[in-house]
Design brief:
By secondary structure, the chain is an alpha+beta fold. It has a domain at 12-85: Beta Barrel (OB fold (Dihydrolipoamide Acetyltransferase, E2P)). It is built from one helix and five strands. The radius of gyration is 23 Å and the shape is extended. The termini are far apart.
């Protein structure tokens, strides 16, 4: 029987977030390379883990550290420990948008609204 002072050895992995669509769940791809025993060719293996992210901290493209834990759901047996590197997000300033593009988008949006109003009237 384990007491409170006993340290638990848990598996730990580092991978990239490939999906963050679900609430409190991310999917992490962990890639490893191994050499074929006979042909000596390097083979890449990718495993996808469903990871519990309690506060929805990680986003698509982040490099994260995950740790093995108790079963949380049917697929989730891993827990997010930390976000090592956040994905790079391009800084786009409002000045760099073309004003004609903005007008076209607004015009197409107003046409869509007008079309919906006409269909509702019929």
């Amino acid at each position: 029987m384990a007491d409170a002072n006993t340290a638990v050895n848990r598996k730990s992995r580092v991978g990239t977030v490939v999906s963050d669509k679900n609430n409190k769940t991310i999917v992490v791809a962990v890639e490893r390379a191994s050499r074929h025993r006979l042909y000596r060719k390097v083979l890449r293996h990718t495993e996808r883990y469903h990871v519990h992210d309690e506060h929805n901290v990680a986003t698509l493209g982040d490099i994260v550290r995950i740790e093995e834990c108790r079963p949380i759901s049917r697929l989730k047996r891993w827990l997010l420990v930390e976000v090592l590197t956040e994905r790079a997000v391009a800084e786009v300033s409002p000045e760099s948008l073309d004003s004609s593009l903005v007008r076209d988008v607004q015009r197409s949006g107003s046409h869509a609204a007008d079309g919906a109003a006409e269909e509702g009237a019929n």
